């Protein structure tokens, strides 16, 4: 397993966001986390990436314990946030050089990682251009390329296609599939686009009312229900809103 979460709890002040949450994610798969606005997806991702402290519960990432082995976990993880996390006045290469050096990469290994991140995100022709004027899709690809610099075993993508056109979205999904296939990187993906999740993911979970309310493979869901993923999501979240 790449991720094992047991009885995870998190509150902001006295508002409970995650309650006794349990979840396991298989290594090398593409996992999609769905949930309505404010369900707690970013909170969960932030905890897994040590950006936020959990209140209680146990988290293992590739067998490393989040309470004791944060540095080991950080070295194998990468979190690509919803917002653009690069310098607009720097070129693609300069951005990757800067963020790569933060990982302690130097000279040849830095250059190699930059080239492979550029290739993986199809940024060759933007390499020496400043990020400022890129389209939304290319900016998103640069965000992902930065996330690949440390060759992560697990890549967290928080709504990486927000605000971009359908062609660029599809291109990004193809890129993510390739990253998963070529390096067996576990992908933890959040999105509000059900069609994306259906196209991309092996397994999904729905987070609602502080808990995981559905956990299954996309294949099983398709086999066992006549409903589309979107209809299923609406059905489940409607029920939990009424509860
Ligand atoms: N620092 C904070 N202090 C207090 N409440 C917070 C804080 N951060 C988030 N929240 C609240 O916690 C809940 C979960 O937020 P979170 O951003 O994790 O949800 P989400 O599922 O990622 O939502 P979205 O799909 O809109 O991005 C929301 O009600 C949010 O308002």
UniProtKB/TrEMBL annotation:
All residue ranges annotated as the ABC transporter domain in the record: 3-234
Alphabetized InterPro entries for the sequence: AAA+_ATPase, ABC_transporter-like_ATP-bd, P-loop_NTPase
Pfam families documented for this protein: ABC_tran (PF00005)
GO terms of molecular function: ATP binding; ATP hydrolysis activity
Chain coiled-coil ranges: none
Tree of life domain: Bacteria
Keyword Ribosomal protein: no
Entry keywords, A to Z: ATP-binding, Nucleotide-binding
Annotated protein name in UniProt: ABC transporter
Organism field: Aliarcobacter trophiarum LMG 25534
